[in-house]
Amino acid sequence: MGWRRQATDGADGSHPARHRPAAAAGRCLRRCGSRPLPPGHGAHGRRRGPQGIVVIGSLRGRLLECGQDGHVLLEVGGVGYRITVTPTTAYRLGEGSDDEVFVHVHHHIREADQALFGFLDRSERACFEALLSAHGVGPSLALAVLGVHGPDDLAKVVAVDDVAALCLVPGIGKKTAARLLVDLKGTLDLPVDGVPAAGNGGGPRSALTEVQEALGGLGYSPEEVRSVLADLAGDDSADLLREALRRLARA
């Protein structure tokens, strides 16, 4: 006859065996030791959204590359930032390539994609962002518009509903231009009686400058631009641009 071990009970002077349940929900489970939890603990499957991304508003640094394809490479603190600009902006930045340059930046964030767009002044960046708010306009088309029409010229084009002037931009037809004029009226500082808002410049010199930049943005060489602008006169950028394009087409 074999012996069996009998479980103790309360009469034996010890507590009866009890079922020990798993840790209850909500109970704080501490990690052994005094060291904190490692970074990222509990973050599996999560990714940072747009609100968690550091948005870049401007950059100052050394220009490493300045391509004719509308991209520049700017080194800031040992890091190279690839920035998309208009051909005119690339040309103007390249003039002082040995010096430190500064650009205002629009940091474009869309789902998993990010891109930097650079501008020489705040008004140009504001126009770019106003264009992005318009129906059906993405960064490439917005930059193409600014390659043809500077901020002052664009404001005047919108103020007088100049569909033909917007159609000078590659990729914009009459229907798109008409829709764009409607969308931009509430987002741009429009001139009064054809005069740009205070602080925006204006006059014959600024009109010729805008035409020069627009032609450069369309891919014309500096020699072609200088020759066609040599005897142009006027204070309306859109009219000057149309005349310059007519002359270049005949050349």
Topology of this structure?
Blueprint: E1 58-66, E2 71-76, E3 79-84, H1 87-95, E4 100-110, E5 113-119, H2 122-132, H3 139-148, H4 151-159, H5 163-166, H6 174-184, H7 203-217, H8 222-229, H9 237-250
Parallel strand pairs: 3-5
Antiparallel strand pairs: 1-2, 1-4, 2-3, 4-5
Helix pairs in contact: 2-3, 3-7, 7-8, 7-9
List keywords for this structure.
single chain, 251 residues, alpha+beta, OB fold (Dihydrolipoamide Acetyltransferase, E2P), DNA polymerase, domain 1, 2 domains, 5-stranded mixed beta barrel, 5 strands, globular
Radius of gyration: 32 Å
Quote the average pLDDT: 74
CATH topology of the largest domain: DNA polymerase, domain 1
SS-based structural class?
alpha+beta
User: If classified by CATH, what would the architecture of the largest domain be?
Assistant: Orthogonal Bundle
Q: Given this structure, which CATH class of the largest domain is correct?
A: Mainly Alpha
Total strands: the figure is 5
Order of strands, main sheet, comes to: 1-2-3-5-4
Order of helices and strands: EEEHEEHHHHHHHH
Supply the number of helical segments.
Answer: 9
Q: Which of globular, elongated, flat, extended, rod-shaped describes the shape? A: globular
- Low confidence ranges: 10-49, 192-205
- End-to-end span in angstroms? 120 Å
